[in-house]
């Protein structure tokens, strides 16, 4: 089933996108900072969410991992 039609899969993809963008911005900030607007600005915004809300994102990743491993 596609991640668009399954809510838990959609949340997993969004969490992975946020974590990946924050990690890439930590390694190479210039790669995401030059695209703050437009279609590629989504990655910059995800990186900002990952940086500013990192305790909440980490908690959501732990909860999602628990639900995938033990509840499915």
Identify low-pLDDT runs. none
Q: Rounded to an integer, what's the Rg over CA atoms?
A: 13 Å
Tell me the number of helical segments per DSSP (H or I, 4 or more residues long): 4
Number of domains: 1
Helical proportion? over 70%
Strand proportion:
under 5%
Largest sheet, strands/sense/barrel: none
Distance between the termini: 15 Å
Order of helices and strands: HHHH
What structural class do you assign from the helix and strand content? mainly alpha
Rough outline: globular
How many strand units? 0
Mean pLDDT: 87
Pfam families: DUF1242
InterPro entries: KISH_domain, Ksh1
Function: Involved in the early part of the secretory pathway.
Signal peptide: 1-26
What does this structure look like?
- With 72 residues, the chain is mainly alpha-helical.
- It has one domain.
- 76% of the residues lie in helices and 0% in strands.
- It has four helices and no strands.
- The radius of gyration is 13 Å and the shape is globular.
- The relative contact order is 0.15.
- The model has no long low-confidence stretch (mean pLDDT 87).
């Amino acid at each position: 089933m596609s991640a668009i039609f399954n809510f838990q899969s959609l949340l997993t993809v969004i969490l992975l996108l946020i974590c990946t963008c924050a990690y890439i911005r930590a390694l190479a900030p210039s790669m995401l900072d030059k695209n703050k607007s437009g279609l590629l600005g989504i990655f910059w915004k995800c990186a900002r969410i990952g940086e500013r809300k990192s305790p909440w994102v980490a908690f959501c990743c732990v909860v999602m991992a628990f639900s995938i491993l033990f509840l499915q």
